[in-house]
């Protein structure tokens, strides 16, 4: 069970114009949250935290998107531009133009950047699986070369890299809970150490992250995922493999009972921190696909999921960053991947499709305000003022 932070720790505004700007949401079973409209990045920086959002390059040309993004967020992460598939559709022809556009945008606006992702079982070029299967002897060299090309190109410019994404899949039936991905098939579990070592060599300054989903699930498979993740990280760290942080994706599903077990999530965060890892929330959103009722009540449940999840993760001093997977419901993977029965837009992000702040924005703001400061890191983020 999480408890509400005392209201005195929330940001209050009083007075006519301030109240017009202020948001007031009433989250079920909690006090009403009243927060001003101070940018999220300012609130995060006060606590030594970083707030960021997933973007795609074409959106950066839209002034409304751009202005909202730079006002609220201090970090960007490309949603797809750095995945192996879009990057090297044809073998040995690398297309960095979208990723470069995002990196240039970040630099021009004093924003930080995360890299997503060096190795993932999904969104790979068609030629890759066959190539790895046909030439197992070359697999390690090919993976090293890929990581060197990617992480090397942005050396010194990435705050962190998702080195390996979603490597856990208990349903694949292995004793260690690892996903039977094309990389595992080619190299066995050694591919994980190889990837982190290659990334450390290519960009020694970047934080190297193991990124995973389903860490907050209450179901049995959630418990299995957490167990497998911790055992794997412990093993890698024991062997001296340079893993620096655990990425907790945070794709929440408030319409589904058991999808968020705050107690298990808290214990998981503590166990990862005990291993010496930093924590990042890397892909936060909350889908209302299976929630009926009015927009207001749907938005309240989404905001409640943000609040309950963030209260747990931000209470941990090891947590250093929160990134939402997108910013506005106008551009979110959720509507395509988890369509609502009424075919409406899925309202999982802090801004609605018309760039109005939603209760989820205010829940995020309140959670940042309530987070304990990270000693020594307050206002450490660039462009925090
Ligand atoms: O947001 C991404 C979407 O545009 C792609 O179609 C999809 C492909 O599976 O990947 C989405 O991003 C995923 C991320 O890379 C890893 N975690 C889950 C995200 C949502 O599927």
Essential attributes:
two-stranded antiparallel sheet, alpha/beta, single chain, 11 strands, 14 helices, 8-stranded parallel β-barrel, disordered N terminus
Write a structural description:
The protein is an alpha/beta fold and 385 residues long. The chain has a domain at 9-31 and 77-305 and 312-319: TIM Barrel, CATH 3.20.20.80. It has 14 helices and eleven strands. The protein has helices at residues 16-21, 40-46, 63-72, 84-87, 97-108, 126-134, 136-153, 182-187, 190-202, 220-238, 262-274, 295-314, 333-337, 359-370; strands at 23-26, 32-35, 50-55, 75-78, 112-120, 160-165, 207-212, 245-248, 251-252, 278-286, 319-324. Strands 3-4-5-6-7-8-10-11 form an eight-stranded parallel β-barrel, surrounded by six helices. Strands 1-2 form a two-stranded antiparallel ribbon. Strand 7 (207-212), helix 10 and strand 8 form a beta-alpha-beta unit. Helix 6 packs across helix 7 and helix 7 packs parallel to helix 9 (190-202). The longest helix is centred in the last third of the chain and has 20 residues, at 295-314. The two termini are 34 Å apart. The model is unreliable at 1-22 and 381-385 (pLDDT under 50). Ligand 9MR binds next to loops.
Which small molecules are bound? ligand 9MR
Strand content: 15-25%
Helix content: 40-55%
Q: Work out the radius of gyration.
A: 20 Å
Strand ordering within the main sheet: 3-4-5-6-7-8-10-11
Low-confidence stretches: 1-22, 381-385
Oligomer: single chain
